[in-house]
Structures are given as structure tokens and as C-alpha cells.
Specification:
Order of helices and strands of chain A: EEHEEEEE
Number of helices of chain A: 1
Radius of gyration of chain A: 14 Å
Shape of chain B: globular
CATH topology of chain A: Ubiquitin-like (UB roll)
Bound molecules: flavin-adenine dinucleotide, FE2/S2 (inorganic) cluster
CATH architecture of chain A: Roll
Structural class of chain A: mainly beta
Helix content of chain A: under 10%
Helix content of chain B: 25-40%
Shape of chain A: globular
Largest sheet of chain B: 7 strands, mixed
Strand content of chain A: 25-35%
Largest interface: A-B, 46 and 54 residues
Structural class of chain B: alpha+beta
Oligomer: heterodimer
Number of strands of chain B: 19
Largest sheet of chain A: 5 strands, mixed
Radius of gyration of chain B: 23 Å
CATH class of chain A: Alpha Beta
Strand order of the largest sheet of chain A: 2-1-5-3-4
Number of strands of chain A: 7
């Protein structure tokens, strides 16, 4: 049996100049929000920027986003048959869409 | 919009920050070199190392007497006659030293009465596998090395730096060109020595245990720079990857430690054990090796005796709740949060791509055939031959990483005053910062198509027709990809990142497929249904190089790595 989740996602390169886009995502019970985001990229819009490495293991800790205003790991938050609002972390520098600068300063590349 | 190029200079450039890359960086810095440790993800978080949950094989003899020669003998047996012996020996001989060093750095190997515990694992002749409870081996290894990297002086770290090509001066490797994800800018990294520690390729498959960064970048980088690969047809499938119900926050490989500790029963859809029909009666113990396990499961599915999602059942229903809790404590609660109660229902499992035996040709000093280029970890081919023993991969990453760091440092001291100028830097910059083609194509969808093709046609069970069809699909995808990356070229441009990934994934997939097509026999992880037997004529390693963008295969003597260096 398939149901839909409605994902309302913040998009943009500039915190002050973004837009909201809404996607209907079919899913099976038990799937993660990250599963939904990856579905959107493969089936609707490959330009959607998200950041993740490990997908299942919850080991890389890269996939943090704000879900309905709360910080979650996209790979462990469950997709639900309702409207879910996703935004980039508000306390980190925005890179694009749901991706923020999360590396500690000593682990960033510096031009030399 | 395209960005101004950036640059950096170093003695040793380490590409990839898994166990191999971090150990290499530590060793090179210890020898007094300036090191740049680059990763396309966060440092120490992007690859297989941080995800590993199980065990590390090493002849410590802490509980049962052991010697590296016994470990070596088991490794060669598992490798079905194809191991590169000097590499396998290095792995087994220096393993104990690296494991003790990690112990000294506080990794926290599980202990009983003060002795490091060693578990039994399939293919090993005695208990040999150390681990960190509970299912915490990889995170602990990664964290320990990260902490040590942070304490070492002389190591600069740079995450979000996706290396897209090696740079050369005539034949020598003199650094690399990268796409800086955080800005979209091209970056030229100049180095006196470069170490590829980019891990494996299992992301090429639909069912995998891979992270997003395991599309085989290092193999493609080495090939395009003129290097050789070996044993590329040998992709290891892990037979009991988690399939259903959907389980989040846990790696799909997690059932292995359950089987180590508790046995468990593999059942078909008639709820009957079946492995005895494939030559291995388990009797509730975990004895089946990975190649036989994958074969047995896929054959049951093919015969219509599979589980609803296309695998088989793994049951722990006979295990008392107490035994489950004692062995796995908090993991049982995580399973409960996913609605899984092992005392009541079996879960579904199926073979998933897990590790790559093949890789870059390197000698026991981790030197590749290209001056200035070293390799380490899963990126290196040969140590495990046609099939890897469980637990050997982390040992390999640590030992080869340490060796590569030392060798690179030695070469830096011997060779150049400053890094040579790259001949091909402008070309790389132009590609990374290219104006996008107007054509529209869905890069994420193309990746899924490739993964499905590789899974179905060049997966655990292969035959000529399937492989040929896969090569056709790969060619079509390569045509669709074209020569220029799409996107706006600004920061975190997913289509551009996907494009560079596909460029590598398609090349490496083609290499795997062509090597698999050529090997007309069944051996270890390479199982040809049209050639179901091992052939003595194929006691050879195939090496692969690129000749004017054409893939050239050659089957050579087994110690080819030594012969080349
Ligand atoms: C889920 C899982 C469980 C496992 N469990 C075990 C186990 O219990 N025991 C065992 O022995 N083995 C296990 N293995 C295998 C083992 O973990 C790996 O073989 C080993 O960790 C590889 O280490 P590495 O340093 O070579 O590569 P990795 O740890 O994979 O690191 C490679 C790094 O390179 C980076 N990289 C890749 N491409 C680029 C690029 N183009 N530019 C910049 N950076 C790049 C990646 O982001 C990554 O950080 C497991 C593997 C997986 C996937
Ligand atoms: S994707 Fe790795 S923690 Fe979420």
C-alpha cells in the first residue's frame, strides 16, 4: 500500500532570497526523510541539494536539517503521511537548499 | 557562474580520510612531512571505516595461540589462489603491530579478564577477530585516528574537497585537481607525493553497504592518470545484507555480528533451512563463507523459494530474549524502535555489494606503477585475491595506510625540492569550472539506472549475455553524460557533483564488467553461471589499463605487482 508524504522544502543559495517548494513523495512505512529526499532527486528534481554520506548507518552525522523547526538527522527521522517542512540548519552558514557549512573550521580548505 | 581557481602546496597529499588515509597522514607527518589530508566528505566520516560494525582479523594470540603465518594461510585459502602474496603477507604480519598501536591510542578493543577478546569468524582457523562493543568497531577506529590526526603537527585537513583528477608532470603524479564543494571553485593541489586512500566501489550496485562516497573514484583517478588496476572482477557480496522491513539508523551489514554471537538460521519461504543443499550444513552455527552464502540465497530466490522482498529469512526466534540482550544490549532497543522483535519474527536478508578485492596495482611499499603515486586501503587491489576473509579489510586499511605514509615520506626526502609543475592543471580547471551544456538530463536518475544494471547483470551471479547487456547500457549512459558537467557551478551544485561521480562510476563499472566478461570461470566472488567451475587455466590476475580511452585487459603472472616495480 503506498501513501504520500508532502515535503515542503526551502530552496536557494541566499538565506534572504529563498523559496519554498512542495513535493509529493510516495513511500513505504519505515522509510526515512532522507529516503524521501533521495527519491525527489532521482524522480523529480536532481538540483535539490542535500548532504549525506552513510544513508543507513547514522554514522557520518552529515544529514542534519530542520524538520518542522527541530534539528534532526534526515536519515533517522521517519517519513510520514503528512505535510513535513524541511529547512537548512538556521545556526549554520547556508551553502544551498538544505546544505549548510557543518565542518569545524580547522577541517575546511584554505586557499594558500 | 564559475569560480576563480584556488590552490595549495604540500609534501604529501592524502586523498581520502578513512582508516587508510588517516593512518597514512599520521605516519607521513611523523616522518617530518607536511601533509594535506583531503576528503570529499567530512574528515574521517565519509567512507566505509566509520560504518564498520564488526571485527578486525589479526593474529594477536591474546586468547588462543596464533601466528601471522596461520592468518596468512587462511587469507590465501580464501583468496582461491589469486592473492598477491607479498601484500597478503604484509597485511597479516604487520596487523598485530597496528592493532596494538590502536590499543595504545585508546580504541577500546573488547576485553575479558584483561585480555583482548578474539571472536571466531568464518574462514579463520581459530578465534582471531577483535572488536569494539556494541557494533562500534568502525566508529571507534575512526574516532581514535581522528583524535591522533588532530594531535599530530604538520597535518592540514580539508573536507568538502572532491578530487576529480590526478595531475601529472610528464609521467609523474604531482598532485590533484579538486572541486571544492563549499564554493564550487576548482582547486589545484601540488604535492611531492600523493596517496590514494579513496576506498572501494560498492556504490556501483543498487543493493550495497556503501556510503555516497564509494563510487570507485580512486580507481578511475589512477586509470586516467595512466595507472593499472588488478582483479577488478572480484566484487564481494555480503550474503545477509538487511533487506526488509525498512530499518533506519542501522547499517545493513549488522546481522553478521548477530550471527557470530548467536548463530541464527537461514530459511527459505517454506521456513526450511537450505544451505545444506549447497554443500554447507550450518546447524545453527555461522560457518558459511560469503561466496557460497550469496550463491545459495540467490539460487533459492531464483527457484521461487525467496522471501517477499526477494531475499531469504534470517531467524533468531529460537534465541531467548535474555541471550539477545546480553549480546547486543542497546541494539535490541534500536530494533524495537524500528518495530522489530527478533524473538517473534524473522527478518529478510539478501546479498549486497560490500567490499572490493580488486583495485590499484601496488607493491608492498604501496608504490603504484606511477612515480609519485601511492595507494592504501581498499583502493589497493590484490591482497585478498578472489575472496576476502571477514575482518581483513580494516587490518588492510591500517597496515597499508601506515606503509603508504612511510613510503611517501621516504620518497619526498629522496626526490624533489618543491612539487613539480603540473602539465594538465589548466585542462582540469577548465573541466571543473566549465559552462554547462544546455542539454538537460537527470544525473541522479542515471546513477540509479547504472546501479540497477550492475546489480542485475554484473552482480553476484553473472553470465555472458547479462554482462554484454550491461556494457551496452553503460555505453548509452556514457553518451548521455557527454563531456561537460551540467549545473551552475556554484557551491554544492548537486548535478555537477553527480556528473563527476558518474564519470568515474561509468568508467569503473565498464572495467568491472569487461574483466568479468573475460574471466570464463567461477572463482571466489566471481560466479559465472555459464562457466560454473574453477578453471586451472585461470589461476591468473587480470590487470587493466587505459589506452587512448580504451580499456585494455591483460592476464599476467600472479605476482604482477612485484614484476612491475
Ligand atoms: C558497512 C560496512 C561494514 C564493514 N565492516 C567491516 C568489518 O567489520 N571488518 C572489516 O575488516 N571490514 C569491514 N568493512 C570493510 C572496511 O570497513 C573497509 O574496507 C575499510 O574501512 C576501508 O578503509 P579505507 O580507509 O580504505 O576507505 P574508506 O574508509 O572507505 O575511506 C575512503 C575515504 O575516501 C574519501 N573519498 C573517496 N573518493 C574521494 C575523492 N574523489 N576525493 C576526496 N575524497 C574521496 C571518502 O569520502 C572516504 O572518506 C565494512 C565495510 C562497510 C561498508
Ligand atoms: S546520512 Fe549519515 S548520519 Fe545521516
Amino acid at each position: 500500500m503506498s501513501e504520500n508524504a508532502t515535503l515542503r522544502i526551502w530552496r536557494g543559495l541566499d538565506v534572504n532570497d529563498g523559496r519554498w517548494e512542495t513535493y509529493e513523495v510516495p513511500f513505504e512505512a519505515g522509510q526515512s526523510v532522507l529516503d524521501g529526499l533521495r527519491w525527489i532527486r532521482a524522480n523529480r528534481d536532481p538540483t535539490l541539494a542535500i548532504r549525506f554520506s552513510c544513508i543507513n548507518a547514522n554514522a557520518c552525522k552529515e544529514c542534519m536539517v530542520e524538520l518542522d523547526g527541530e534539528t534532526v538527522y534526515a536519515c533517522t527521522a521517519r517519513l510520514q503521511a503528512r505535510k513535513m517542512t524541511l529547512a537548512p540548519l538556521s545556526n549554520k552558514k547556508l551553502l544551498r537548499d538544505l546544505v549548510t557549512e557543518i565542518a569545524p573550521p580547522t577541517e575546511r580548505f584554505r586557499n594558500s | 557562474m564559475t569560480q576563480e581557481p584556488m590552490s595549495a602546496e604540500t609534501d604529501v597529499l592524502v586523498i581520502g580520510s578513512g582508516a587508510a588515509g588517516m593512518y597514512a597522514a599520521i605516519e607521513a607527518a611523523r616522518s617530518g612531512c607536511q601533509v594535506l589530508l583531503a576528503d570529499r566528505s567530512l574528515i574521517g566520516r565519509g567512507g566505509a571505516t566509520v560504518m564498520a560494525q564488526m571485527t578486525v582479523a589479526v593474529a594477536l594470540g591474546s586468547e588462543t595461540p596464533d601466528h601471522w603465518r596461520y592468518h596468512y594461510a587462511d587469507t590465501l585459502t580464501a583468496g582461491r589462489g589469486l592473492c598477491n602474496e607479498p601484500l597478503a603477507q604484509l597485511l597479516c604480519e604487520e596487523g598485530p603491530d597496528c592493532i596494538r598501536a590502536m590499543d595504545g591510542w585508546g580504541v577500546g578493543w573488547a576485553r575479558k579478564d584483561g585480555r583482548i577478546t578474539q571472536a571466531m569468524a568464518p574462514g579463520h582457523d581459530r578465534p582471531r577477530c577483535v572488536y569494539v562493543d556494541f557494533l562500534n568497531t568502525g566508529p571507534a577506529v575512526s574516532k581514535t585516528l581522528r583524535t591522533f590526526v588532530n594531535k599530530s603537527s604538520g597535518i592540514r585537513k580539508a573536507g568538502d574537497l572532491c578530487v576529480v583528477d590526478l595531475l601529472r608532470n610528464k609521467g609523474d603524479v604531482v598532485g590533484a585537481a579538486a572541486l571544492h564543494l563549499g564554493s564550487g571553485a576548482p582547486v589545484i593541489l601540488s604535492a611531492k607525493a600523493t596517496i590514494l586512500a579513496t576506498g572501494g566501489l560498492t556504490r556501483l550496485y543498487r543493493r550495497n553497504s556503501a556510503s555516497a562516497n564509494m563510487g570507485g573514484d580512486g580507481y578511475a583517478l589512477a586509470l586516467r592518470a595512466g595507472g593499472s588496476l588488478v582483479d577488478m572482477e572480484f566484487v564481494q557480496f555480503f550474503p545477509i545484507g538487511h533487506l526488509a522491513p525498512r530499518l533506519i539508523g542501522m547499517d545493513p551489514i549488522m546481522w553478521d555480528p548477530f550471527r557470530y554471537k548467536l548463530g541464527g538460521r537461514l530459511l527459505n519461504n517454506r521456513m526450511e533451512e537450505f544451505t545444506q543443499h549447497y554443500g554447507v550444513a550450518e546447524d545453527g552455527k555461522y560457518v558459511i563463507t560469503r561466496d557460497v552464502g550469496s550463491y545459495a540465497i540467490l539460487k533459492e530466490v531464483e527457484a521461487g523459494r525467496g522471501s517477499p522482498h526477494g531475499g531469504v529469512y534470517l531467524s533468531f526466534q529460537h534465541c531467548p530474549e535474555r541471550a539477545l540482550r546480553e549480546s547486543f544490549g542497546p541494539v535490541i532497543d534500536r530494533l524495537a524502535a524500528n518495530g522489530i522483535d527478533l524473538t517473534r519474527v524473522p527478518i529478510e536478508v539478501a546479498p549486497i555489494a560490500h567490499y572490493h578485492m580488486g583495485g590499484i596495482v601496488a607493491d608492498a611499499k604501496m608504490q603504484t606503477g606511477l612515480p609519485g603515486l601511492f595507494a592504501a586501503g581498499e583502493a589497493v587491489g590484490g591482497a585478498n585475491g578472489a575472496n576476502r576473509l571477514s575482518g581483513n579489510a580494516i587490518t588492510e586499511a591500517l597496515v597499508f595506510g601506515r606503509r603508504a605514509g612511510r613510503s611517501a615520506a621516504d620518497s619526498v626526502k629522496r626526490l624533489r625540492a618543491s612539487p613539480d609543475h603540473a602539465d594538465d592543471a589548466q585542462k582540469a580547471i577548465a573541466l571543473i569550472a566549465a559552462e554547462a551544456p544546455t542539454r538537460n538530463f537527470n544525473t541522479a536518475e542515471m546513477q540509479q539506472t547504472l546501479q540497477k544494471t550492475m546489480q542485475d547483470n554484473v552482480g553476484a551471479l553473472r553470465d555472458e549475455a547479462k554482462i554484454v547487456a550491461a556494457i551496452d547500457t553503460i555505453s548509452l549512459l556514457a553518451d548521455e553524460l557527454g563531456d561537460t558537467p551540467p549545473g551552475d557551478g556554484n557551491r554544492f551544485d548537486m548535478r555537477r557533483i553527480d556528473w563527476f561521480d558518474l564519470r568515474n562510476m561509468l568508467l569503473v563499472s565498464r572495467v568491472v564488467a569487461e574483466a568479468a566478461l573475460a574471466r570464463t570461470e567461477t572463482r571466489g566472488a566471481h560466479q559465472r553461471e555459464d562457466y560454473p567451475r574453477l578453471s586451472p587455466d585461470w589461476a591468473l590476475n587480470q590487470t587493466v589499463g587505459l589506452q587512448d580511452a580504451r580499456i585494455e585487459l591483460s592476464a599476467g603472472p600472479r605476482d604482477i605487482a612485484e614484476a612491475r616495480s
